[in-house]
Write a structure and sequence with these properties.
Length: 379
């Protein structure tokens, strides 16, 4: 059964760049032109509402072909049947839902399935974050894997993903203390890498430390490129710190890499720091959750990176060069149509599922917000 509360059909012309197309693209870029990929087929995109009436949904992770675990920032964990739209409440966790904090990322892993959650809490008047694991959907007897992650009402991080190496990756924000991002001793402003039981892997870049990369302001999305399993991350740029604004980033993550914040913003070209492969310049996207698309239902977009944009209010599509080290083309989809977008994940059915975030205090809620949307293709 499909839920047709909203149904919008768009016709887009898309294509694939071959070797000659890449050469032409590079030539045109020399002349200051940013052309789209070669057009060679018409594609119909359908977007429909799967679930509505949510309160700031933050993350979703599939546990089967038709079911996904969904978090809402206020502390709710639910099971969503994407075929019927039915939501089953699994539990309400005590959470400090303050500003950008609350119950944020979720990852799942069999058996059980095990749930990994990123949660903001208060301790002695301070906001902190932790990663907890539950052995089943019953949400009993949580095991704390990481504790004491600096938290704040802004720059709170929160994405949790299990990588292709069967390791747990966690993004943390700088908690409005930019200098912490450059300190390996702090968990703030980092991407962390752990074993699934919370132990530090022996092959982490800093012995005995969960830190995988540093110099981050507020990483909101994590995704691995199919084929080479390289990690990419979306990151928010400054919003007034040091008089700087915008310059949101898409980064290709290197173990032990320093991504510059707060010493470098955007593409700085400074030795010792890794520049983003894409940045927003003077425009603010506020990129959030991201996912590589397998191409299962639309092979022309296989290997493309999609990310949800909050302030930018769009779904962003990024086409990477063959080596993954640069961007060939990127575009905004559904600009302003659905408001602020928080996360995007590919379902087992080959469709993309998108979470809106219009009730987070920074958007303009519409009737039925917030929603889970499904994007599908046909010809």
């Amino acid at each position: 059964m499909r839920i047709n509360t909203i149904s919008r059909r768009l016709f887009l012309k898309v294509g694939i760049l071959g070797a000659s197309g890449v050469a032409a693209y590079l030539l045109l870029r020399r002349w200051g032109i940013n052309p789209p990929p070669r057009v060679d087929e018409a594609v119909r995109i359908s977007v429909e509402t799967v679930a509505a009436g949510l309160v700031v949904p933050w993350s979703m992770a599939f546990i089967s072909g038709g079911e996904a675990v969904l978090t809402e920032r206020v502390g709710r964990v639910s099971l969503l049947d994407v075929d019927t739209g039915r939501l089953t409440l699994l539990g309400e966790l005590e959470t400090a839902a303050v500003g950008e904090g609350g119950l944020l990322g979720v990852a799942v892993h069999p058996p059980g399935p095990r749930l990994y959650l990123y949660q903001t809490y208060r301790s002695e008047g301070r906001l902190l974050n932790r990663v907890v694991m539950y052995d089943s959907l019953e949400l009993r007897d949580p095991l704390i894997l990481v504790d004491g992650i600096p938290g704040a009402a802004v720059h709170d991080g929160g994405r949790v993903k299990i990588g292709p190496d069967a390791r747990l990756y966690v993004s943390t924000g700088d908690a409005a203390q930019p200098w912490l991002a450059q300190s390996i001793a702090s968990l703030a402003g980092k991407i962390l890498r752990l074993r699934l039981d919370g132990r530090v892997p022996g092959d982490n870049p800093f012995p005995g430390s969960p830190v995988f990369s540093y110099g981050h302001r507020n990483v909101q999305g994590l995704a691995w490129r199919p084929g080479d399993n390289t990690l990419y991350a979306t990151e928010h740029g400054p919003s007034g710190e040091m008089g700087l604004w915008a310059h949101d980033e898409i980064n290709r993550i290197t173990p032990g890499g320093n991504y510059g914040w707060p010493e470098v913003v955007g593409v700085g070209g400074r030795a010792g720091f890794i520049d983003p492969i894409l940045e927003s310049g003077d425009e603010t996207w506020a990129p959030s959750g991201c996912s590589f698309y397998s191409g299962r239902n639309h092979d022309a977009w296989a290997g493309n990176l999609f990310f949800a944009a909050l302030r930018g209010e769009h779904l962003h599509r990024v086409v990477l060069a063959e080596d993954g080290g640069s961007v060939v083309y990127h575009e905004m989809l559904f600009k302003g149509v659905y408001g602020r977008l928080r996360d995007v994940v590919e379902g087992p059915d080959g469709n993309l599922y998108i979470l809106t975030s219009n009730r987070d205090g920074r958007g303009l809620p519409r009737e039925g917000d917030d929603r889970v949307l499904r994007l599908s293709w046909s010809r």
